Amino acid sequence: MLYTAFKNLNEVAGDTLNGTGIESIKDTVNTFAITAALLGAAADVVPGVGGILAALAQTGLVWALYVKINNTLGISISEHTIKFIGSAILTNIITNAGYLIIAYAAAAVMSFIPIFGQAGSAVTHLALGYILIYASAVVYLNFLTHTFKANGSFNIDESDKTKQNIKDVVNRSNVKEIIKEGKNAFKEAKDNGEFERAKKDMRCPRCGEKITIAQDYCTSCGLKLK
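^ that's the sequence the OP posted. Answer follows.
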């Protein structure tokens, strides 16, 4: 789905996007998704509200992810507008995919159960963090494809019309399949030991500076981590 979304965007852009962009975007999505997953799992130290804290952290990472994708593709959209788009996309993905709502709710309940319940909740948030970032990336590329104009610009503003466009894009996207692909990407990253390596040497997904799970912001670039 990620490759298809990039291919569709490149087609409407007249094959003008960097041909190596998809590999760069794939690596970027994986890096941001791993960071979001680890932050989500760490949030379970606060029973019940850990999921809320995780979702808030992941929202900030979605904004930063979109900025990095834009830089890779040579697209100029203001940071404020990116936040507007990111919040709308996340809201629609979560409401469109009932599985995610159930999973977050189940994790919240498990987090109140000492040891095994909290461990199960942490594992759930680890997967949800990765999948949510992955799905957000695919939907964003679909949204850019939908809003691309013949003159090379994008028909995007902070209006109810844009919110409706995002809702339409999410509804037309096969969210179930996107989440399935996100699960597979998560499993692949886990099997490859990427999470364990990231825990030992955690880096800011935006600038690459060394960070810790306890940090609220990256001390180098200011990215909000929590």
